[in-house]
Amino acid sequence: MDKKRYQVLTAAHWGPVLVETDGETVFSSRGALDTLHENTLQTVVADQVHSPTRVRYPMVRKGFLASPDNPQGVRGQDEFVRVTWEEALALIDRQHRRIRQTWGASSIFAGSYGWRSNGVMHKAATLLQRYMSLAGGYTGHLGDYSTGAAQVIMPYVVGGNEVYQQQTSWPLVLEYSDVVVMWSANPLNTLKIAWNASDEQGMKYYESLKKSGKRLICIDPMRSETHDFFGEQMTWLAPHMGTDVAMMLGIATTLLENQWHDSAFLDKYTSGFATFQNYLLGEQDGIRKDADWAAAICGIPAQTLRELAELFSHNRTMLMAGWGMQRQQYGEQKHWMLVTLAAMLGQIGLPGGGFGLSYHFANGGNPTRRAAVLASMQGSVAGGTDAVDKVPVARIVEALENPGGAYQHNGEDRIFPNVKMIWWAGGANFTHHQDTNRLIRAWQKPELIVISECFWTGAAKHADIVLPVTTSYERNDLTMTGDYSQQHLVPMKQVVPPQYEARDDFTIFAELSEYWESGGKQRFTEGKDEMAWLETFYQMAAARGAANQVSLIPFATFWEQNQLIEMPENPANSQFVRFGDFRADPLAHPLKTETGKIVIHSERIASYGYPDCPGHPTWLAPDEWHGNAQPEQLQLLSAHPAHRLHSQLNYSRLRERYQIAGREPVTLNTADAQARGIRHGDVVRVWNNRGQVLAGAHVTDGIKPGVICIHQGAWPDLQDGEGSLCKHGAVNMLTKDIPSSRLGNGCAANTSLVWMEKFTDELPVVTAFTPPASS
Ligand SMILES: Nc1nc2c(c(=O)[nH]1)N[C@H]1C(S)=C(S)[C@@H](COP(=O)(O)OP(=O)(O)OC[C@H]3O[C@@H](n4cnc5c(=O)[nH]c(N)nc54)[C@H](O)[C@@H]3O)O[C@H]1N2
Ligand SMILES: Nc1nc2c(c(=O)[nH]1)N[C@H]1C(S)=C(S)[C@@H](COP(=O)(O)OP(=O)(O)OC[C@H]3O[C@@H](n4cnc5c(=O)[nH]c(N)nc54)[C@H](O)[C@@H]3O)O[C@H]1N2
Ligand SMILES: [Mo]
């Protein structure tokens, strides 16, 4: 007889989710909030839990198991051997101990970057760091892949990172803005998720924006899903990739020429404009950065740039910028120049005016609630040792290649650590890092690599020891929705038991702590199990809530009810204007910058003497772009995908919605297709001197000629090891692994040139989702 089916409420990055189950099998899932938009990511919980790509048992690479002190074989090419949990943990403990004693704490890399699953308890990398703090310290990471350039430059310019801060509220944008520009932003895709759980309100506001009759402009080399959503009401302008600074400079000079800039605002609220004005007018270099100059670089007609200058300055304009354009070489310049342009328009701090760097992410602009905010698991134990060194996330391969090597970061001279052990938990670095073949070569250097994962990712296939981890549906947790709004508190109730031999990260690191020292488990867990921790986090939310006149029901009742709690609105927050206080009284509310004002020329940045990040926003031509491409070369864009979170869910049935010829699609312009004899649906080979991939051709007029897009996150699938053909279309086989600049050291994936041809050889079978050979 069929078992009774029921619904469990849980949540993922992609929002609160209702899962239909009988306690053993997941049947279906759907979003738990009322929204106007289908969020496809919510529909595939069954595929996550029951995927044939799950890691089922602890596994050890054969050549490693044979002689762990002096491993044999090549990572990524060996088969795996199943071992017991006890064998795996004892092996890790012994090797970790040996490596730490020989090489010291900084040789242990636990800076494991990644989007794991949401939840305040089961935070994979945090738990890893908690264990490593107990064991005596580790090397961690600095920054992230998302905004590596912007988050480092913005504090110099406006005193905060801006990318992860609340935006001028949407109700004010809808009321006051006349012109809304989406500059390198594709909210229709990127709002499907948040770092916590998505509150899913952003699209409701974009829906209202669509009906508002305001002037809407998308500036993007690709005609994105967002453009299609707005349809006729949206103007699409497609600059060459990487040329936005030139484009903005052309607009800025036009403002000056026509006296359309707001000099009173510049005088009162900014510093360093005079130096920048000299640059615009070419006082030093003899090059006037006017609309004609800019048009030649960015490929947008000079007349259009002049019209934009007039439009922006004569109307209340909100420049909403996404982050794709700063994931590039010289990425720091993009948002610095955008803020400078907004400063010249003089509308920063007015309702509906200025700029916003997070409307496209985590539903920025959805007003913050009066909330009881959950506490969460911390990455160190009492008396433990935190990170003894840190590596900027996107320079990890250079660190492996160059131990002891000098590098610069944000005004500091630093030295790369000598990494001998890597543990990656909750990240997919074989899809997220640039130049995968270079990564594979550097990845052979450490003495031990451990991956704890739910799935056989590229990193897992290239590890020595792989531990099976539960998905968030196999354990209990809690989360807030809305990174900014704090709109709901959501129970994340276990749906089904752990699959096969999967364990929670919490359990794994608690056990290893006991191996490390007697009483270690007690020290790691503080004597609390999963439910006791959840109750603690809830009680702390209750205490925080009390300070906001929000009271929570008792934990036991809340947990029993299986329902989310919606926090009350805070009417004052729906009137929030970013920089409103500063504008009202800049002396009473100075910015945390070197002058207390918006910094257009920075003495501090200039003092570093970085050629790749000068003292004011500057057009710098990248190493690989349209301007130095050979005739057959194309610029490679790797935007974020509609139906995945990076590499997460690539194995699910959602793949059927986008794959072409069984592979990751590559979007290319009709003219570029014709020139190469490529038709829609063909398999093509895309290559450069770094790597080569097969992909399915998606031919369209919706992308700038000379630019192709392969979305980030498709799983790697090398035919024959390092350097060979990737059968599936993982874009980072092709991207260049260089830092944005010495300032931010951010990811610069969107600065790459490639060639493309129709693939006519016999088609290899895709094995990206097939677990490795094992015995
Ligand atoms: N070319 C190119 N590359 C890019 C980008 C780009 O634009 N272009 N974007 C960059 C950006 S912004 C980002 S944020 C990164 C994203 O890079 P990642 O954050 O590394 O990508 P995810 O695919 O989300 O990887 C999360 C992994 O955690 C695993 N996981 C989930 N839950 C758990 C858990 O509870 N425990 C453990 N142990 N593991 C778990 C998942 O199975 C998955 O493999 O990619 C970057 N890479
Ligand atoms: N569905 C879904 N949502 C996500 C994610 C996901 O993987 N899937 N990832 C999440 C994460 S971790 C992050 S960091 C954010 C990423 O958010 P973003 O970084 O904003 O997303 P991207 O798609 O990389 O880039 C946004 C747009 O910039 C355009 N672009 C790229 N280069 C240029 C350029 O040189 N000039 C101009 N004008 N435009 C350019 C791209 O074509 C794209 O449409 O999204 C988050 N949301
Ligand atoms: Mo990101």
From TrEMBL:
- Keywords assigned by UniProt? Metal-binding, Molybdenum, Oxidoreductase, Periplasm
Residue ranges annotated for the Molybdopterin oxidoreductase N-terminal domain, each copy included: 10-50
PROSITE patterns reported for this sequence: MOLYBDOPTERIN_PROK_2 (PS00490), MOLYBDOPTERIN_PROK_3 (PS00932)
**Domain Molybdopterin dinucleotide-binding stretches:** 634-750
Picking any one GO biological process from the record gives: anaerobic respiration
Q: Which domain of life is it from?
A: Bacteria
Give an example GO cellular component term for this record: outer membrane-bounded periplasmic space
Pfam families, sorted: Molybdopterin, Molybdopterin_N, Molydop_binding
Q: What is this protein called?
A: Trimethylamine N-oxide reductase I catalytic subunit
Species name for this entry? Mangrovibacter phragmitis
